[in-house]
Amino acid sequence: MARLKLPGWKDAAALFIGCIVAAIAFEIFLRMYHPIHFTVRGDNITLAANESYNIENTYMPNLDKLISVRKNSIGFRGAEPPQDLSRYLSIIAVGGSTTECFCISEGKTWTDLLGNKLKTNFVNLWINNAGLAGHTTFGHYILIKNYIAALRPKVVLYLVGVNELNKTEISADELKIVPGHNAERLINYLAAKIETVYFLQNLYRYRQAGKGQLYTEHFDIHHEKISSNQDMPKLIQEAEKEHAEALSAYGQRLNKLIDVTIANSITPVLITQPILYGNAIDNSTGIDLGKLKYAGKFNGELMWHIMEMYNDVMRKTANERHIFLIDLSRQLNKDSSYYYDWLHFTNVGAERIADILYNELCPFLSEKYPQFVKDKCR
Fold first, then answer.
1. Contact partners, residue 371, CB within 8 Å, separation at least 6
2. Which of 174, 177, 324, 342 is the most buried (most CB within 10 A)?
3. Dihedral-angle region of residue 229 (phi above 0 means left; psi in -120 to 50 means alpha; beta otherwise)
4. What is the pLDDT of residue 257?
5. How many other CB atoms are found less than 10 A from the CB of residue 335?
6. What is the pLDDT averaged over residues 141-162?
7. Rounded to whole angstroms, how far apart are CA atoms 130 and 203?
8. Could you tell me what percent of the chain has a pLDDT over 70?
């Protein structure tokens, strides 16, 4: 009977040395070229400054066929900051992908269009889009502390909520993913020093982010998928129980975000998150969006109820803290022409959002910053 020959120490040593050489080679490669730009590095955010992107669109009819995106010298979308920003009515929009609007071309995002409208009423107006896809209030907190606080804009608009779904483990305290966790602190430290750790950490975070949200990818709307025979009261009750801890954590993070904003002499404005689905008829197709099935146990009615639980946290926080709130989720009609999936906006949707925000924001800014007013709000 043949005996299994185990590798000798020379073979093991050669394998070990080969792995070390490969790891060093990969580290050198990542220091020269990163195939993917990640916005989080350790406990910090890295912005893609002075970058331009051209995206060919062949399957989304409500978006440009060639989508152009440009990041300025800060890493935001919009005009370069003027030399003396203190002399300007400066506004920065902060949020996730529904703020960044990466699939909408320059000049057509809701921040661009809102800025154009506000310029008819205010002198020296400057607006930028600091949205970062996938970021939560944890990331927004870091963004304020590390970037926006130094700019001292007059106003920050927060369109947040959807990336908070089922998030309980993140915390804004001390800018740590898991406060007090020694292993996490070590990984964050190594990620700031070693490119390979940075790369692998962010791949892991992207995977974990996908587990914490209802849906993280952009999908077409499939109106033919209609749900039936679902015990909605039971599903809603289960959802309320499942999300209770996350809702409490979101409220705490939102308050800390407001605290750091006010502490830096910036006026926060809160905006509730709209989605396509809900207990309504789609204006464009006539389909009952509440019965529209998406995946698993979720349908339009349940998705809307879950999103509104998080919007309610924002409404409650705004009321308690006396923060100006624009209830976009209730003002934006349920119309599939405004969305290219269940969440993200089309060009037409961005136009409608800019109209709603302008109507709410213009009187507020006129009262709070009368020195910049040149014409009455229409």
1. none
2. 342
3. left
4. 97
5. 19
6. 96
7. 22
8. 72
Neighbours of 73 (CB within 10 A): 10
Q: Quick one: CATH architecture of 49-166+218-372?
A: 3-Layer(aba) Sandwich (3.40)
Quick: pLDDT tens for 50-85: 988 888 888 788 899 999 999 999 999 999 999 999
Do 71 and 50 contact (CB within 8 A), yes or no?
yes
| 326, two tokens | 């624009």
Nearest to 127 by CA among 150, 103, 107: 107
Tell the burial category of 347 from Cβ atoms under 10 Å away from its Cβ (0-12, 13-18, 19+).
Answer: buried
Two tokens at 83? 């030399």
3-state secondary structure labels for all residues of the chain? CCCCCCCCHHHHHHHHHHHHHHHHHHHHHHHHCCCCCCCEECCEECCCCCCEEEEECCCCCCCCCEEEEECCCCCCEECCCCCCHHHCEEEEEEECHHHHCCCCCCCCCHHHHHHHHHCCCECCEEEEECCCCCCCHHHHHHHHHHHHHHHCCCEEEEECCHHHCCCCCCCCHHHCCCCCCHHHHHHHHHHHHCHHHHHHHHHHHHHHHHHHCCCCCCCCCCCCCECCCCCHHHHHHHHHHHHHHHHHHHHHHHHHHHHHHHHCCCEEEEECCCCCCCCCECCCCCCEHHHEEEECCEEHHHHHHHHHHHHHHHHHHHHHHCCEEECHHHHCCCCHHHECCCCCECHHHHHHHHHHHHHHHHHHHHHHCHHHECCCCC
Query: Residue 263 is encoded by which pair of tokens?
Result: 């502490």
CA atoms of 44 and 254, how far apart (whole Å): 19
pTM, two decimal places: 0.79
At 165, the amino acid letter reads L
Report residue 2 as tokens.
Answer: 């043949």
Per-residue pLDDT at 369: 98
User: What radius of gyration do the chain's Cα atoms show?
Assistant: 23
Which H or E element spans position 40?
strand 40-41
CA distance 200 to 36: 11
